[in-house]
């Protein structure tokens, strides 16, 4: 079967990919490049038409595909044009707008206020801002978050009950024009290799700024929106969400909100992770599976009711887009709706469109509108999933299982045997023989029922087998993208999906019947809520059960690009061989044998590369013979990664995950351990960390280590003083459960790693501190030396600890070439005396961008500047990497920070610093202990 749309979409996508290459992207705004691509595409189109007229169809096809490629590159260049001059980010970057103080923002609400576990959320399309006494028109998106608990505390009033609307909240609705006074900021961004780009993720949702609404009075309605269709849809969407909350308890309500309406705000973090571990997270995401199931159900009902095809398609599309309007209009939902529409419209012309062609048409339409989608992970996953089903699973089932499924229809009718293939006909004969023999053991009245039951069981078994094949094809086919994006391998996915997908097929239609019935007829809603709640709870328990098998889900680094390309080359070759398989017997034994060998070889290559991706046997990247210190950007927190000359690893702290909202500690915020530290280590290729150290028990240092201990094999957990506090206790319990050995470090302890020596300078061990709360002065203070170069790592130690360290150590034992500044650059750390004793040449400050504490303090920066110390900061320079061979320092930053050069071991000599990007350095295999 020919697939012209697949070829066109592939050519267009390849052209976009070429346009996104660094060399092309650097000149994307060049007028000459845009004109050149446009002219080249036009010439190729004319050339293809000439070849087609003369009968050179293959040459004409190649010219046409090349034309599509040039058009793809043209689209990529146009899409990469700079933002509009009045866009809020353009204004900020050009210095025409500063975000350091609260401002009055003008705009209109995109949707109804969204109830969240901790309060309410608002999304505004901005139209302007009052700045420096003038109204500044602009465009962009702002997301507001309001915490009811904090507002209740400010008012000295009781907290509102869960689900109740705060009486003090402003009465604003979708479409209303509003003003709000808030200090907006750009979304948090971790400047580390491999880190999750939350800023780009939110920009894809047209969210450019985020802010906290400190008081309800600061949000004011200016005008009331007219009742347009969009506003009415927003009101209906909110009504459905409220109905879910009214009918169900918190836990099933959160899952049902996600499954039915696309709102995952109330799904607990641990519950979400369980869905990820079992490979059924797609059940919680309203996307292709939900849209496809609903479209199929509507079309099937129309045909069963014997409606005309045109009427069936019209009703299907109307109800389908009504469903899409009710859920969040996320790109995966729109993509699935577009593809379902193409398939349904094809039925009007009595054509059964090939699924690959339909998907290619949908992809082409989307890429023409938004060429940059080709680099979007969600877009890639959507169409790879369709390719796995339509390109591999469906042809395999069509050749091997479908003949037997079709043979079950009218299996008693001997006259129909000749309509089937020889194997299927023999299968029907054998069925009649076996069922007749088994029925002979039952009374005559039960014989027919027995035969029908056996055939029904066989039919269900074949359908289950089909679902298993599709699930396996999806899990294997999406493995490279899943490991690259989420770094997770889920071995339980095929089994879990066999149970979860059919349950979802019942829950989704029953769920909509329940909430719609509850809106129209409350008694009916309460009646249907009973079986729906039972099924949802059963699904949750099923997922929790499979998630307990820890070995069935594990984390790995993403595969190298060459391996991903090899995997998909084998997948495409297998898909081609499977499609040719049905026609190959008519070509003769030689060509049939070629198809069989191609099919077998490509399948073997596909499975082999999948096994390599799932196990990642590659060595991590490090500098052999060098001692490395990397200060990661984890926002307002600390995380340091050390690698010895022989490849041993030590991670000191992991940044701080937000501990939760008042009364809702289970709803965590941004987790640097999951979004920054772990991705950086995976980017380096590490699966194991020899040691992890916790300097002290504050959240901004140990919060991210929970994810690190869960994601990596950790040999030893180092802690200082054993103090009170639930966070440190939970971390130690997790370490013990994971088989990590716990050791306590105190002043005087020494570490010897491949010629590098680490001295623990603080704290002193005090057994009577167990009941105290963690303090900054509990911090583990380390000094590492390799050759003539040394590093001072003081954690959050403050004045008192610094004085004690100075009194207990000779000055020469404190000298260090690199100082990781204590307590994020607080004025209460790095005193003049301590700075004089350490006498560093380079100081690195780990602090969050625009943090509320004012770190680093101006006093501290002045002290460093007066001492002639070169200052590097994670909030400005991103991750800072420092390597030493014992004689000089090689320094590089995520954001290019310094001029080329090298710092040699000459403390009294001014020197520049050398950029040594890891990816351009020599690497070797780290020993896996």
List the helices and strands and how they pair.
Elements: H1 4-19, H2 22-25, H3 31-53, H4 57-79, H5 88-93, E1 103-109, E2 114-116, E3 119-131, E4 134-137, E5 141-147, H6 148-154, E6 177-182, H7 198-203, E7 209-212, E8 219-223, H8 229-247, H9 250-261, H10 269-277, H11 288-304, H12 309-326, H13 331-348, H14 355-369, H15 377-400, H16 402-407, H17 422-439, H18 444-477, H19 479-486, E9 488-490, H20 493-520, H21 522-547, E10 553-555, H22 561-581, H23 589-615, E11 627-631, E12 640-643, E13 649-652, H24 672-684, E14 688-694, H25 699-702, H26 705-711, E15 713-719, H27 726-737, E16 741-744, E17 750-753, E18 756-762, E19 781-786, E20 789-793, H28 799-808, E21 818-820, H29 832-838, E22 842-845, H30 858-866, E23 870-873, H31 874-877, E24 880-884, E25 888-893, E26 903-904
Parallel strand pairs: 5-7, 13-14, 14-15, 15-16, 20-21, 21-22, 22-23
Antiparallel strand pairs: 1-3, 1-6, 2-3, 3-4, 3-5, 6-8, 9-10, 11-12, 11-24, 12-13, 17-18, 18-19, 19-20, 24-25, 25-26
Helix pairs in contact: 1-4, 1-14, 3-4, 8-9, 8-20, 9-21, 10-21, 11-12, 11-13, 12-13, 13-14, 14-15, 15-18, 15-22, 17-18, 18-20, 20-21, 22-23, 24-26
Q: For the record, what is the CATH homologous superfamily label of the largest domain?
A: Ribonuclease Z/Hydroxyacylglutathione hydrolase-like
Proportion of residues in helical segments: 40-55%
Assign an overall shape. Answer: globular
Share of β-strand residues: 5-15%
CATH fold field value of the largest domain: Metallo-beta-lactamase, Chain A
Amino-to-carboxy terminus distance: 53 Å
- Mean pLDDT score, rounded? 85
The computed structural class is: alpha+beta
Q: What is the topology, as strand order, of the major beta sheet?
A: 16-15-14-13-12-11-24-25-26
The main β sheet shows up as: 9 strands, mixed
- Record field, number of beta strands: 26
CATH architecture of the largest domain: 4-Layer Sandwich
